[in-house]
């Protein structure tokens, strides 16, 4: 029994030492950049800085703004700021679809068009149809 537990201990020690030998020791030695060769290959292919060897490819630099290219494309298409690359687009209330509906229907569902709210000078209570039919209650805005 003692022999079997000793054998397991030795096997575990060999496994741990094997992993330690394969560990990334960083780029502190001359001629050895940061990260493993596989990480550097991924960085070159994907334009990332996972390995630490390509700091110019880090998010938020001039060469690589925040987020992925797909997130930035989505942001430009929907006028949002999911990626963090377009902070000027973050203060607009509602979604792009809600704002499009508001522009088309003359409403303020999104909150982006307060002048189109009911009971304002440019938008009296009710709808154009209800006002034409006389079914709008003029006291709705009081």
TrEMBL record:
Signal peptide positions (record): 1-23
Key word Signal present: yes
Annotated region described as Disordered, given as residue ranges: 25-142
Compositional bias (Polar residues): 76-93, 133-142
Keyword terms, alphabetized: Signal
Entry protein name: Lipoprotein
